[in-house]
Specification:
Strand content: under 5%
Radius of gyration: 33 Å
Number of helices: 6
Oligomer: single chain
Number of domains: 1
Number of strands: 0
Distance between the termini: 57 Å
Largest sheet: none
Shape: elongated
Length: 151
C-alpha cells in the first residue's frame, strides 16, 4: 500500500473492515449466481439426455442450484443410508463451501500489519589509505575531467 492508503487504513479500521466484508459478500453473490447458472445448464443437458428422471434427481438439482437443502432432517437421515448418500453429501459440501466464501475473501484482503525479515549479507569495502585498489580508485576520481578556460 502507498503511505496515504496505509495511514487511512490504520486510522479507520472499522470502515476498512466494512468495505472488505462488503467486497467479500459481493464476491459470494457473484460466485453463487455463476454456480447456479452452471447448475441450471448442467440440469438442462442432463434432463435432455436422460430417459428417466426421478423426484430425487429434481430435488438434488434444485438443492444445488439454490444452495439450500431441499430435504428436511428426517429425510436426510433416510437418504444418507442408500445409494443417494453421495448426492446428499455433495449438497452439504456445496452449502458449507458457499458459507466459507465471505470469511475466506475477507481474511485474504483485510490489511494486517506484518513483519518482513530477510537475511542481510554484505561485503565490507576497505577505504583505508593503505589498500592499493582504493588508492587507484581515488586517484582516478581526483583527476580533472575538463580544463577550465582560465590560464
Amino acid at each position: 500500500m502507498n503511505d496515504y492508503l496505509a495511514k487511512s487504513v490504520m486510522e479507520h479500521p472499522h470502515s476498512t473492515n466494512f468495505v472488505v466484508t462488503l467486497i467479500a459478500n459481493l464476491v459470494c453473490l457473484l460466485t453463487s449466481y455463476l454456480f447456479s447458472c452452471a447448475v441450471i445448464r448442467f440440469a438442462q443437458e442432463w434432463i435432455a439426455k436422460s430417459e428417466i428422471i426421478t423426484v430425487f434427481d429434481v430435488s438434488f438439482i434444485s438443492g444445488l442450484g439454490h444452495q439450500a437443502l431441499p430435504w428436511n432432517f428426517k429425510e436426510i437421515k433416510q437418504l444418507l443410508v442408500g445409494k443417494r448418500a453421495k448426492h446428499v453429501s455433495l449438497v452439504g459440501i456445496c452449502l458449507s463451501a458457499f458459507a466459507l466464501i465471505p470469511s475466506g475473501v475477507t481474511s485474504l484482503i483485510t490489511p494486517v500489519p506484518f513483519k518482513k525479515n530477510a537475511a542481510f549479507q554484505v561485503n565490507e569495502i576497505d577505504f583505508s589509505s593503505n589498500d592499493p585498489d582504493c588508492l587507484d580508485w581515488l586517484d582516478k576520481i581526483q583527476e580533472p575531467n575538463c580544463t577550465s578556460g582560465v590560464s
